[in-house]
Amino acid sequence: MHLVECPECDSLGAICDEDGAGYLDARDISGETTVDPESTACAKCGVLMLAGFVPTSSGRVIEAGFSPSEFEGF
Ligand SMILES: [Zn+2]
Q: Is 32 helix (H, G, I), strand (E, B) or coil?
């Protein structure tokens, strides 16, 4: 699992490294919130697909209230 952010609006999402599942809300990564990153647009600005999000910096992750140990791939 790694966190990604929308380059347009800084919205935080997450993508699973194992099965490629996407999550528009990085705080809610239960099985019920899984989306297809290729066909799901940013929930906030709607401009970019989740697949087009960029990797989030570890500083941003901490700022958002996450523990870096929870996520990999920074
Ligand atoms: Zn966005």
A: helix
CA of 41 to the centre of ligand 1 (A): 8
pLDDT band at 74 (very low <50, low <70, confident <90, very high): very low
Torsion of CA 53, 72, 30, 12, to 10 degrees: -30
Give the distance (Å) from ligand 1 centre to CA of residue 52. 10
Question: Model confidence over 47-73: pLDDT tens digits?
Answer: 999 999 999 988 888 888 887 677 655
Is 24 a domain residue?
yes
Number of domains within the chain: 1
Domain residues for 19? 2-57
Distance (angstroms) between ligand 1 centre and the Cα of 70 equals 23
